[in-house]
Amino acid sequence: MDQRSIKTVEFDKPVMPGGACSVGQAWARVPQSPSTAERAELRACIREWLIRQQAVLVAHYYVDPELQSLAEETGGCVADSLEMARFGRDHDARTLVVAGVRFMGETAKILSPEKRVLMPDLDATCSLDLGCPADQFAAFCDAHPDRTVVVYANTSAAVKARAHWMVTSSIGLDIVAALHARGEKILWAPDRHLGGYIQRKTGADMLMWQGSCLVHDEFKGVELDLLRAEHPDAKVLVHPESPESVVAQADVVGSTTQLIDAAKALDATRFIVATDLGILYKMQAAAPGKTFIAAPTAGNSATCKSCAHCPWMAMNGLANLAAVLQSGANEIFVDPAIAERARMPIDRMLDFAAQKKRNVRASGDLARDDALFRHMGAA
Ligand code: 13P
Ligand code: SF4
């Protein structure tokens, strides 16, 4: 491994069951930036190999805009993690190329075991996933057998295999509200900020794992308050992985797709955005002429933790995407026994989302819709 291309990353590593956080050490590989000529060549090569491999590109909003535009132009998708999962499952391509982080590739494979799932870099991980090891999580679940286990998508397949439900940021609130209305007590993992937001909104009884996203955890409430004073006309868009002091100042709290939709729909011309800056590419395209200001973090791009850009999402580049398409390397495999168990909580979420789309009703009503819960049972 070329040490010059390695960036060290520190993240919150919860020590459960108490939840005190120690510091975890990880790393991310920084891809080299191609020259303008190389970029054009790589884009052409990727287009050609997507066709040759009968492949489709499924990208997250935080990856390099070059990859986002290629996904759009070639019939793939750029989306939040819920829509990435749904798109990959429903698309008839033989190969899915997932430009994002590892849990997104694993979810795609679990939902489409018959497809080949490739990723530009298999080491692209997530601090929430790293901070929730499957064996420790299993012990936590074993200690609380009376609770319904709800895990965020940003976890390993083995953690999902212990869950009753998987949720993403776009639907977690609705699902927990529905479970709460049924009188269920929740065991939530791993993001303490998203869990705290859902708990405050729903009043549900939630026992929390204490993980966090190293990007969103860096947004600071005090500095945001000062920035809002400088721009009193600005609306504040916040991803719920952010701390409570930041969420409390939001005009809109939502998933990446929901924040882009809000930027488009709201009658404002200026927005302060508290999420990974990769989102600005799509936000600017969706709402041209509007101004987007990055919410303040603890620093000014000096470290991975303060640059408001996920070091692992940044591992997806044109060169490694072209290389995996040509070679077929970096295929995602999930142990079939784990995949079978992990599929149930994901299917439940997708069924719930489909049902919610059909019934434009409040979550409380959905909670009484027994069809949604018919697969409910022990994990
Ligand atoms: P979304 O589901 O909102 O896209 O979030 C995924 C993620 O990893 C945010 O940090
Ligand atoms: Fe994980 Fe945060 Fe990166 Fe999203 S932005 S993949 S939550 S580390």
Commentary on this structure:
By secondary structure, this protein is α/β, with parallel strands linked by helices. Among the domains are: 128-212 and 336-374, 3-Layer(aba) Sandwich (Rossmann fold), CATH 3.40.50; 215-294, NadA-like (Rossmann fold, 3-Layer(aba) Sandwich). 40% of the residues lie in helices and 18% in strands. It contains 16 helices and 14 strands. It has helices spanning 36-52, 65-73, 81-90, 102-111, 127-130, 134-142, 157-160, 172-181, 192-202, 221-230, 244-247, 256-265, 280-286, 318-327, 336-358, 363-367; strands at 6-15, 20-29, 55-60, 77-79, 95-99, 116-118, 148-152, 165-167, 186-189, 206-208, 235-238, 252-253, 270-274, 291-294. β11 (235-238), α11 (244-247) and β12 form a beta-alpha-beta unit. Residues 361-368 and 374-379 have low confidence and may be disordered. Bound molecules: 1,3-dihydroxyacetonephosphate and iron/sulfur cluster. 1,3-dihydroxyacetonephosphate binds at residues 80-81, 154, 168-170, 213, 241, 255-256. Iron/sulfur cluster (SF4) is lined by residues 101, 126-128, 154, 213-215, 241, 276, 310, 312-313.
